[in-house]
């Protein structure tokens, strides 16, 4: 009898302690709209993959909360001459497999990016070589001066990997093995379901707050929102406008709306009639009721964009842009020789939001006599044919992932970048070219800002685009989730997040 | 019998080669360049070229096909263009989830569809029959997308009984997707069982059995059912094959880690090796299920056994 009751007491104690232990071992579950493709940071450059990789891998430098460049694996840096940057590395960093992090890893990683080639290798096109100067010192040598180099090094695709683990894993690197230096250690990836990470107990910096991090892919927007609502996940990324409306005010959860580095625009094929006339392009800018798109299609998950850069991008100027004014639009069209308008097409891929935008603008443009046919083109063909200049007008978006105006303007407006590289409006202006070239080499921030301000003003005036919107991102979370900080490029780091 | 099976298996080889060639051509005829899709908007030309080269896309299509075929004969289906993982690994990672889902859906369909069909046939034009057949028509016609979301709203949000998505262990995750996927199959199996049963019940031997004074129940289950099941078994086999490859929508709604969703993503990204490997898997599954069904006939219908020698 006595023994039995002791047994009961022991059992109760055991259960109690197990309960305490479990409370401390927190698991955070996050849902995003797609599955990662590969966890190899030098593989496919897609957002769902980046969102997992930034927990595991690290870069030499990072973007801080205000998108300023802050130390990462490099604790300090200086520019030695026009083309040489010296980085002092942290000496207390270990890879998840126990190997120490040194300058050799930096050299190996950048060489691997170029050799593969990584789909994001263009980010370090300017890098000529990486020279190991001392175990914890590297020089990054450029082909020619390139002012935004630090912003490019902060991109998650330029993460540092461990040579031994890459070589040992072979084909399995990025799916079975992912060894980085970051606050979370890769545990397993159940294809199509989730990736499980655990806290890196030997992290060089502030360790992650939760023990286990699970990142799930839930493609259906509504179902992702429902998972958040029913507590199946703690954080759900990218809540759709319709679900945002439904979830607002639901007890137990909250929505976090943040600015991003993305813009959406309508590009004109400026080498084709009638879009070779600046007055026609301006007229269309005046004719579009962008506020209505923000209100009805994005239901507030966007703001009208006056110019080509999202407001968070460094050096973005506050331009008023073109306000909705159909009368002015008509006058400009008449002046350009189209008093009765004309017929044209607008291209979009099968993105639902873009299709809705195209239809709304079809109605807007009909008001000024422009008869627009909406063509919905499959994505692959869309990229190919707009690069070949087969289009009249097209809708696309751009994410200035580096938060630097060079990335947000050069590929889109420089005359050497026609077609595939990004300039699908085939816009060319000598002064803009000159300014964009100058911006790449100018080291002085004030002068650089002035250069990009002038470029933006010119681009707005010449209107190779109809400037539409800067998009926002809405992420939903349970109300016990603390410490979440949205990254404007969308790859949110989760080591600071915990549950109350 | 064994000779028959071996002959059927051997005849699969030209079929599979034909399918692979067809898929390969189709993927190459449709516009879109995988390298372009991987790099997206804003890809420098030199890099596109380097990527095409590294993926072997610069060679003529027949060279690409022949090298694929040569490796496939050694059961090496290449690596996914995007993830770089071996295609066989991608498929094996995803196949169990789809097989589980299809099997559950077929089980539901058979467990409900066959009895409902029999009951309907044994009391044609009764209230039960009418309700069941209208239900079956609705089941066939209901869009999977709508049905899935409705089930989630009901069982996950309102009653909070079942998880709304994922496959994170436990049968509770299987229920809603299996019901969603199985509904249309249940309905068609019920309808087919009913009509096959009605047909058989009008045969002479059934009348004889009744005339002998056998009980109605015994006539239906012992005499009629076996014969009525032959077309139903064919249907179940076809349904299973169809469910394996047709679970895309269900898998998407419920974030089920199946192979159908993977195939659609692979097609969108023009991930040739992955598309090729996945479709081969489907073709093989379909063919094997059909073979299994054919063999099953022999056991259901002694008359057919002779044809298998």
Notes on the structure:
The complex is a heterodimer of chains A (500) and B (309). Chain A is α+β, with helices and mostly antiparallel strands. Chain A has helices spanning 2-24, 47-56, 103-115, 149-153, 163-169, 221-229, 241-247, 278-287, 290-297, 326-335, 352-367, 379-387, 405-413, 430-441, 445-462, and strands spanning 27-32, 61-63, 69-71, 74-81, 84-89, 127-134, 137-142, 184-190, 194-199, 212-217, 235-236, 253-268, 302-304, 343-348, 371-376, 393-399, 465-478, 481-482, 498-499. In chain A, a hairpin with a 2-residue loop joins strand 6 (127-134) and strand 7 (137-142). In chain A, helix 8 packs antiparallel against helix 10 (326-335), helix 13 packs antiparallel against helix 14 (430-441) and helix 14 runs antiparallel to helix 15. Chain A is globular, with a radius of gyration of 25 Å. Mean pLDDT of chain A is 91; it is low at 15-23. Chain B has 309 residues and is an all-alpha fold. Chain B is 78% helix and 0% strand. Chain B contains 14 helices and no strands. The longest helix of chain B has 36 residues, at 87-122.
């Amino acid at each position: 009898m006595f023994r039995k009751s002791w047994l009961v007491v022991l059992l109760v104690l055991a259960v109690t302690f197990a309960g305490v232990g479990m409370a401390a071992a927190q698991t955070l579950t996050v849902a995003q709209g797609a599955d990662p493709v590969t966890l190899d940071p030098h593989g496919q450059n897609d957002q769902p993959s980046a969102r997992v990789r930034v927990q595991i891998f690290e870069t030499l430098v990072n973007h801080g909360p205000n998108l300023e460049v802050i130390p990462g694996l490099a604790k300090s840096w200086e520019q030695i001459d026009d083309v040489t940057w010296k980085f002092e590395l942290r000496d207390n960093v270990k890879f998840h497999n126990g190997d120490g992090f040194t300058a050799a890893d930096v050299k190996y990683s950048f060489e691997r990016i170029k050799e593969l080639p990584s789909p994001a290798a263009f980010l370090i096109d300017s890098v000529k070589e990486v020279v190991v100067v001392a175990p914890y010192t590297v020089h990054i040598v450029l082909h020619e001066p390139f002012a935004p180099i630090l912003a490019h090094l902060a991109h998650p695709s330029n993460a540092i990997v461990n040579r031994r683990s890459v070589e040992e894993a072979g084909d399995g690197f990025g799916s079975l093995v992912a060894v980085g230096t970051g606050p979370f250690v890769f545990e397993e990836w159940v294809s199509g379901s989730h990736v499980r990470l655990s806290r890196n107990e030997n992290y060089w910096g502030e360790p992650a707050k939760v023990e286990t991090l699970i990142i799930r892919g839930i493609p259906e927007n509504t179902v992702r929102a429902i998972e958040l609502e029913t507590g199946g996940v703690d954080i759900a990324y990218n809540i759709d406008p319709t679900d945002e409306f439904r979830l607002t005010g639901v007890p137990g959860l909250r929505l976090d709306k943040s600015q991003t580095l993305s813009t959406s625009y309508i590009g004109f094929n400026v080498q084709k009639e009638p879009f070779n006339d600046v007055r026609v392009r301006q007229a269309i800018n005046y004719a579009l009721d962008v506020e209505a798109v923000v209100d009805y299609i994005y239901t507030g998950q966007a703001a009208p964009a006056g110019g080509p850069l999202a407001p968070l991008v460094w050096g973005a100027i506050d331009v008023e842009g073109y306000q909705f004014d159909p009368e002015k639009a008509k006058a400009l069209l008449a002046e350009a020789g189209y008093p009765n308008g004309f017929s044209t097409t607008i291209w979009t891929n099968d993105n639902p939001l873009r299709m809705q935008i195209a239809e709304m603008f079809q109605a807007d443009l009909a008001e000024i006599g422009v008869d627009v046919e909406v063509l919905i083109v499959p994505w692959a063909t869309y990229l190919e044919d707009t690069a070949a200049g087969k289009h009249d007008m097209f809708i696309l978006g751009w994410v200035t992932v580096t938060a630097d105006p060079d990335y947000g303007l050069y590929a889109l407006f420089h005359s050497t970048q026609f077609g595939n590289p990004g300039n699908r409006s085939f816009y060319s202006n000598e002064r803009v070219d000159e300014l964009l070239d100058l911006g790449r080499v100018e080291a002085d921030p004030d002068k650089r800002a002035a250069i990009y301000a002038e470029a933006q003003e010119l681009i707005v005036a010449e209107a190779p685009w109809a400037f539409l919107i800067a998009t926002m991102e809405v992420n939903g979370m349970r109300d016990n989730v603390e410490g979440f900080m949205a990254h404007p490029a969308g790859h949110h780091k989760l080591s600071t997040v915990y549950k109350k | 019998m064994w000779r028959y099976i071996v002959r059927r298996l051997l005849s699969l080889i030209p079929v599979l080669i034909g399918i692979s060639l067809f898929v390969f051509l189709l993927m190459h005829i449709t516009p879109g360049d995988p390298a372009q899709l991987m790099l997206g908007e804003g890809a420098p030309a030199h890099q596109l070229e380097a990527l095409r080269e590294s993926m072997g896309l610069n060679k003529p299509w027949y060279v690409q096909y022949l090298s694929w075929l040569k490796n496939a004969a050694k059961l090496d289906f290449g690596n996914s263009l995007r993830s770089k993982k071996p295609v066989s690994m991608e498929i094996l990672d995803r196949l169990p989830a789809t097989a589980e889902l299809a099997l559950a859906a077929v089980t539901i369909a058979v467990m409900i569809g066959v009895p409902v069909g029999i009951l309907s046939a044994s009391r044609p034009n009764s209230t039960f029959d009418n309700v069941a057949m209208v239900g079956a028509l609705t089941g066939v016609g209901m869009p999977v997308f709508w049905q899935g979301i409705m089930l989630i709203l009901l069982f996950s949000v309102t009653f909070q009984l079942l998880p709304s998505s994922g496959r994170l262990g436990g049968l509770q995750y299987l229920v809603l997707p299996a019901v969603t996927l199985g509904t249309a199959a249940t309905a068609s199996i019920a309808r087919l069982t009913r009509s096959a049963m009605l047909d058989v019940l009008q045969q002479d031997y059934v009348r004889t059995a009744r005339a002998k004074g056998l009980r109605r129940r015994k006539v239906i289950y012992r005499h009629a059912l076996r014969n009525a099941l032959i077309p139903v078994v064919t249907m179940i086999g076809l349904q299973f094959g169809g469910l394996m490859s047709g679970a895309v929508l269900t898998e998407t709604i419920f974030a089920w880690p199946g192979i159908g969703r993977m195939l659609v993503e692979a097609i969108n990204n023009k991930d040739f090796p992955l598309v090729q490997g996945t479709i081969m898997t489907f073709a093989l599954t379909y063919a094997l299920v059909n073979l299994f069904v054919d063999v099953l006939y022999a056991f259901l219908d002694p008359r057919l056994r002779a044809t298998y020698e």
